[in-house]
Amino acid sequence: MTALLLVPLILPFLAPTLARRTLDRLAPATALWVLTASVLALAGACVAALGAMVLTGLLKLPALATLGELVHPLRAPSDYLVVPAAVAATGVLTLSVWTLGRSAFVQARAFRTARTQADRRPAAGDLCVVDSPHPDAYALPGRPHRIVVTTAMLRSLGPAEREALFAHERAHNRAGHHYFLAAAEIAAHCHPALRPTRDTIRLAAERAADEAAAEVTGDRRLIAIAIARAALAGHTSPPVRPDFAPAATTGPVPQRVTALLAPSSGRSRARRRTAFLLVACTVLSVAAGTVGVVDFHHEVEIAQGEESP
Amino acid sequence: MTDARDERRPAGELEAAVMAVLWAAGSPLTPGRVQTGLDSGLARTTVATILIRLHEKGLVSRERHGRGYAYFPVQDAPGLTARRMHTELDRDTDRETVLARFVAQLNPGDEKLLRRLLEGDER
């Protein structure tokens, strides 16, 4: 049984590569759904597997075995394997819960502050302008939706580009992209390999909003230029965090601009098929996890004398 | 963009567009100047109506300008609270998780690439 429970722990390491492929080969809005559902399932299978490992270890303790009404010793691989696995799994789960809880607390507080301040002001439509020398813009979800834009951002863009920016942010709010980003955040705390996937999901959300904005304005090139100009305007102020990324790699902004400038081509069926490798990987992981957990449950019932082997 | 399409847009979006022009300008604008800054097919009277509505809401102030008014955004006391909200958000480096930002940080390679793209566009 332990071998099957290892599958959901190992398969997420394939996710970052496969997620990139999914985003490259599907329409951004579709890719966002596929990616988010996949990482949530991968994370769930991973947590279930870790949980089963912890329980196996706990039921090895005589006191807990009595409490669990075990009449026979639990059949499991040797203690040399089960005990370290259980200890490691407990450590990993505790760490996940801790980082997730902290992240949720910090973000909920920031979000609440933003909301109360935005609600306090009378709004011009959905726009909330912040007088600041730093160019910045973001969609603020909640009821009603808001677009928060700094004066510096408004001044760095031309009239048509401002409309492009608004269309982009409204697309985020309309499609509820914050749910996807929150799901990606939760998954990232469940398995270290799902961290890079979180960045892919962020990029997918931005791409989806870009395409929706291009649809609204009817001009892909305009969106591309608005993004490029906004990014460069933000760059004149010194970067807030140290930049360890090598210059050769391409960040998310140029990828979005390049994608918008490229003609929107139809995607061939063969290319689309490889996009679903991530789904296949997820299904495999969930299946292995489920079989592993069901198997563990069966072993516990045997040990409780409720079922015969 | 055609007149018909702009006139049909939700009132909130039009108000936001007008407000953006006023904030970007940094000095009082007449309805005519706002109309030019909008880059859309809105009629001047429509722009004037939106400005009056914004004035009634207390979002813009106006001063006499010839026979009409020139409008400018209100730097209200809540302007301070808005700034506070902004710094609160700035403190969290990974706030993109719930708030989808328009543009992320660039690395030096990105900057070069983007400048090339923009220059290519202006040529």
Report what the structure shows:
Chain A has 309 residues and is mainly alpha-helical. In chain A, 71% of the residues lie in helices and 4% in strands. In chain A, helix 1 packs antiparallel against helix 13, helix 2 runs antiparallel to helix 12 (269-275) and helix 9 runs parallel beside helix 11. The longest helix of chain A is centred in the first third of the chain and has 42 residues, at 79-120. Chain A is elongated. Chain B has helices at 3-7, 11-25, 31-38, 44-56, 78-90, 108-122; strands at 60-65, 68-73. Chain B has six helices and two strands; from the N terminus they run ααααββαα. The relative contact order of chain B is 0.10. The two termini of chain B are 24 Å apart. Chain B has a two-stranded antiparallel ribbon. Chain B is elongated and about 50 Å long. Chain B has two domains: 3-73, Arc Repressor Mutant, subunit A, CATH 1.10.10; 78-122, no CATH class. The interface between A and B is large, with 87 and 64 residues. Chain B: This is CopY family transcriptional regulator.
Whole-number count of domains of chain A: 1
Biggest sheet architecture of chain A: 3 strands, mixed
CATH topology of the largest domain in chain B: Arc Repressor Mutant, subunit A
Query: How much helicity do the residues of chain B have?
Result: 55-70%
Q: How would a textbook summarize the main sheet of chain B?
A: 2 strands, antiparallel
Please state the structural category of chain A.
mainly alpha
Helix segment count of chain A? 13
Report the C-alpha radius of gyration of chain A, rounded. 24 Å
Low-confidence runs of chain B: 92-96
Tell me the span between the first and last alpha carbons of chain A.
14 Å
Q: Oligomer, anyone?
A: heterodimer
CATH class of the largest domain in chain B: Mainly Alpha
Instruction: Enumerate the spans of chain A where pLDDT stays under 50 for 5 or more consecutive residues.
Output: 237-249
The class by helix and strand makeup of chain B works out as mainly alpha
Number of domains of chain B: 2
CATH superfamily of the largest domain in chain B: Winged helix-like DNA-binding domain superfamily/Winged helix DNA-binding domain
Basic shape of chain A: elongated
Rg of chain B, please? Answer: 18 Å
Distance between the termini of chain B: 24 Å
Strand order of the largest sheet of chain B: 1-2
